[in-house]
Write a structure and sequence with these properties.
mainly alpha; 3-stranded antiparallel sheet; 7% strand
Length: 176
């Protein structure tokens, strides 16, 4: 897994989020024990995800990608990854439902969910990127800038009072 900056603020979606130089140098020093691929940038990790259209059949991945798409499609890749990681963190926290799809469809949690049903994202480049970001998050190929956050909201929404802020990425603020 590649380390990411602790806090990223207002990075454009087209910008790459580089790994620290030490992580890039370490890539060439591995003895081959770790089968997890190493990437120089988050953009490289996302681009390396193959055949994302075939992954459309993986229900949990589709739920995760749907959350990324509807919550963060216009955000930088680091912001999309942070949203994916919040959903994954919730599914393993014990404080939320135990599956990704149950987390995303939980009543009152995501505004794009209607009556417990996920909308169908269009088959476009944003959707393919959301699927790839969901893969990167699920495979833990890149460290999230939001760490172990369980909550997030857009900057224009009033805050999560009493919660520790973890990061601000793009237009979202992430909390524990």
């Amino acid at each position: 897994m590649q380390p990411a900056p602790a806090q990223v603020s207002n990075v454009l979606a087209s910008q790459q989020v580089p790994a620290p130089q030490a992580a890039v140098e370490q890539q060439g020093n591995d003895a081959g024990d770790d089968t997890t691929p190493e990437y120089a940038t988050l953009s490289d990790a996302v681009a390396a995800q193959e055949d994302v259209a075939a992954l459309d059949e993986d229900r949990e991945l589709r739920c995760l990608a749907t959350g990324v798409y509807f919550e963060a499609r216009s955000e930088p890749l680091s912001g999309q990854l942070a949203v994916a990681d919040v959903i994954l963190n919730r599914s393993t926290s014990g404080r939320f439902p135990g599956s990704v799809c149950s987390v995303v469809t939980q009543k009152g949690q995501f505004s794009f969910v209607r009556n417990g049903k996920l909308p169908t994202p269009p088959a476009n480049a944003h959707w393919r990127r959301a699927l790839a970001v969901a893969q990167v998050a699920r495979k833990n190929l890149w460290e999230s800038p939001a760490g172990d956050a369980l909550y997030f909201h857009a900057r224009y929404v009033s805050g999560a009072q009493g919660r520790a802020s973890v990061a601000t990425v793009g237009n979202h603020i992430f909390y524990r």
